[in-house]
Amino acid sequence: MKRSDKAARIMELLDERFPSPPVPLDHHDPYTLLVAVLLSAQCTDVRVNEITPGLFARAGTPHEMVDVPVPEIRELIKPCGLSPQKSKAISGLSRILLDEHGGEVPESLEELEKLPGVGHKTASVVMAQAFGHPMFPVDTHIHRCAWRWGLSNGSSVERTERDCKKAFPEERWNDLHLQIIWFGRTDCTAMRHDPTGCAICSWAMSKARRAAEARKRKRA
Question: Which member of 16, 79, 94, 142 lies 3.0 to 4.6 Å from 62 by CB, making a disulfide possible if both were Cys?
Fold first, then answer.
């Protein structure tokens, strides 16, 4: 099957399964989304959503956050993991937003990536979901699914992002990013996944990739 035909069928199935995919992280503006995505590094979105109500009740804007001591931020976000680094990053980026951006989250991938603790994926999520710019942020679910479906070779998240952007039309990137995340969580999970029962892997996953994944499971 040609990649274009495969991508078209995948989009149809994902539209049926998740016609209006929500953003997994609870937020109410670009700043709270930025902080939530930063907190989600090596942490589940469920856990982040448990932590952010208390954090944002204490400080939900850059103006409020810079007045919170870093040790207090660290305690508030401790269950998310990596709290020493994340607390310093949240405090530091809040100060930069005040000093350099008038207290607003910049609508610029380049400027976002300059902020402490903000990498390409975090910046891309904010650009896509807060500002509506076409992006294709790649998380572990998208990286896994793209490899299983033969859309990318799995060599790196950067390669997966490039390949997904080539496979799908630009106007669909933001929705597809969310749809694949939800599908990866519910239908195409990392563990105990049966390709024959998956609505996409059952026809999109090659025999070679099924065999490779079976070998990985045996070694685990």
Answer: 94
pLDDT band at 220 (very low <50, low <70, confident <90, very high): low
Q: What is the DSSP string of 119-159?
A: -HHHHHHHHHHTT--------HHHHHHHHHTTSS--S-HHH
Long-range contacts made by residues 39-42, C-beta under 8 angstroms, separation at least 24? Answer: 39/77, 39/80, 39/86, 40/80, 41/82, 41/86, 41/122, 42/81, 42/82
> In the chain, which residues fall in CATH 1.10.340.30?
30-129
- For domain 30-129, the question of CATH label 1.10.340.30 is answered with yes
Residue 220 CB coordination number (10 Å): 6
Pairwise CA distance, residues 82 & 130, whole Å? 25
Q: Can you tell me the distance from the alpha carbon of 87 to that of 35, in angstroms, rounded to the nearest whole number?
A: 10
Annotation: CATH topology of 3-21+136-219: Endonuclease Iii, domain 2 (1.10.1670)
In this structure, the chain runs to a length of 220
Is-catalytic flag, 121? yes
Give the DSSP letter of residue 23: P
How many angstroms separate the Cα of 102 from the Cα of each of 78, 97, 124? 29, 6, 21
What's the pLDDT tens digit per position in 188-206?
Answer: 999 889 999 999 999 999 9
Q: Which of 45, 86, 139, 187 is catalytic?
A: 139
